[in-house]
Amino acid sequence: MRTAGQRSALENSYDDWAEYFRSAGEAQYRAGQICDWLWKRGVWDVESMTNLGLDMRENLSRDFDFSRPVIKQENRSPDGTKKFLIHMPQGSAVETALLRQGPRLTACLSTQVGCPVGCPFCATGAGGFERNLSAGEIASQLVVMEKHLGRAVQNVVMMGMGEPFLNTEATLDAIRVLNSPKMRGLGIRHITVSTAGIAPGIRELAESGLGVRLAVSLHAAADDLRSELVPCSSDYPLGELMSALRDYQRVTGDRITIEYAMFKGTNDSVEHARALVHRLHGIHAYINLIPANEFGGYARSSPESVLKFQSVLRSAGFETEIRTERGGEINASCGQLRRSSDMAGRGEIKKDSPRRFGASGNEPQTPRKDRGPAPVSAGRGNGRQGVKNHADGTRRRDSGRPGRSAGGRNIPSKEGRRGGKDRGR
Ligand code: SF4
Fold this sequence. Notes:
It contains 13 helices and 16 strands. By secondary structure, it is α/β, with parallel strands linked by helices. Iron/sulfur cluster binds next to helix 4.
């Protein structure tokens, strides 16, 4: 617990530590020692930092709060995916997933508590938005996970709860913490930022010169369907998004990963695939096709549909891969673990219950397939735009006012999303 006058050790950069020790009349290398304890060894107990003198440890305990996030729950699926529920020192819980690809581990970190985007197929979106995470809260999810596992994680993707570019400043600072050789020291090409398509954030990432990889969750090649599947996209229509991606590629020269979650009868026809080819013309993209876990009335595409879809993309010269959305049995779709934990806390379900959301029918939602096929492309006003999952579990049309999300929570304005520093505090 932080006392008056204390700063959070979690939020100190290497330069902050160097300045602290310099002003205390100590040698600069002390900054490297403490960053090594915190970010490489995952030791946050000052008394255990035995290469620091007793007086120094007392001063550090006086001046800093060394609270860090704590893992409260761990679920594991048969495919090796793990999911952690992590409680933050200042309150709130987020989910972090760990994916295994052979000997390599990838951590899927959260950037916000909840998410204001409100994708109707996503448990996080259905739960609404609580607050932004700080840079330290984002980066330390990796460190506490590594300490818990007793081994290093090789890759990080900002693809847990939240939209990184609605919390851009903290996300970029967290990347600097993870990448700095003085702190976690993770290679920059081992870090990926995954966005729902916030165009200003994509441009800011390009200008930052950080050199991380970029993934964009597209899910549709037409604005009307995309604004149903990714509600924030009505602020950043596909024309603007594609322009940002071309600018990003001009600056960085990097290939962009396109994530395309596939839902039966919604976005998985051959015509949808042709529309995607047309939309991505001129962009060097690697396309991940993801037959998505069922949630919110959206059903998983059949293997035949996915293969036909992939064939169209390949014929047009795109590299593609069919990915399995893993961990469905452990609530690994984003937001489901936190949501089930909240419900357990309210006595609605038992902890570690196998009961799942959406697909198992415990949410009163109309199956997407019963609402007829979605158009491949069309003008606006098809009757579905603005239809969202709301916090009360119903699926209904939004008020129509931009800036509103599920349950009436505010989605930050287009301007407010830029930088978006710690709005919820
Ligand atoms: Fe937010 Fe991603 Fe879930 Fe959409 S899919 S609501 S962007 S966390």
